[in-house]
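Study both lines:
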Amino acid sequence: MKKISVLAALLLGLVPVATITLATLDHVSDPEAAHSPSLFQFLFTTFSSLSGLYSLALLCVAYILVQKVAVLKEEVEDLHFRHRDLIREHEDQKNRNEVLAATREVALVLNKDVKFEKVLEEVLRIATYLVGPRPPEEISIFVRDEYTKRLRPRARMKDDEVVCDDKLDGEAVDARHVQGVVESGRSLVEADGDVVALTLPLVADREILGAMKVRAVLEGDREERETRIGVLQRNMEEFSRVVALAVKTPDLYTRTIQDGLTRLFTKRHFEEQLRIYFDQARREGSNLALLFVDVDHFKKVNDTYGHQTGDLVLREVAATIKAGIRSYCSAYRYGGEEMVVILPRTTSRQATLAAERLRKKIEAKTYHSDKKEPVKVTASLGIAEYVPTMAEPGELVKRADEAVYRAKQGGRNRVSLWGSTGDEAARAETKKKPALPAVSGR
């Protein structure tokens, strides 16, 4: 631009300069005219000189203006770029504010509740606000199992419905590339038209706890979608750190009250909870029952199939118990192959019916060894009911344990109610042939 301006100034400047030069040469070449110049020649010479000077002045002004326009154009372009950068910074700040708001919401959830399922449900709902104006198709959280070290889906939100743990169908959850992302520790973006799948590792204190997968629809042209994908990835990568902490915080609490093998509550937690329910029953005069479950011939299972199979059987029996009790009841691992269930607001008759249902479910289920061999087991169950004469929870535990012992002595695979005798005992106990040969001990 500058070269063109200089060239134009030179070409236009030649005309007045040539006029002045020719007029001067014409005057010098005629001596007589020089001594007696006419008025016309004088005016011509003067006009030509003034025109030349005026033209040069105009050219200088034009050149200055062209240079000024070029500078202004550069400034306008610079302002345009700065404006675009400010818009981008504004969007980035807006996104950061959204992430910070989401982080604050997660912190409030953790302060309010430490139940794993409740925390994951709230986290998934908060994450939807970071995806965009259109709700995501699906968000899933996978957590590495402490015992097996395998990834398993713990929560999924689809169609604004959150499903967790036992109610979650693992086969229905999109788990593609999740294992690879956890192993590499890097996020992965997959785009298929308007549909984008983003998989991110969940890392807390340099430990990879699992992964989060977001599947969303991002509309717009190609450039707009790429911009939205970049924003989504940045937001979710930052939010994934918060999700990892949200996963780890209740998990640390859960580890203190939950048995790692069976995922039932621990014996220590049982003692704390039983004290609460015992005091409540004594204060309100309400019903309270205790149910002990002891797997029959468990030593035989370990000796025949190995301890790994024994662990699998215990885990499945525990899952059967958890699935077979009501929401206000709670199950615990008391020790070894013995488990216990607290049944608030439950009479001995109601507890007996519930125990019989559990016994049948445990007997009917086919378990498998680590070599996929079928294994059948049964269980003996003992029940004790709270009575006002009891001074402490230990008396209730002792009676339930004695009921289990009597079920074992009576042939196993049956339900025994403490204090029942004669026909009442026969009605409370259901005799079944043991699935495995009897061995010494419980």
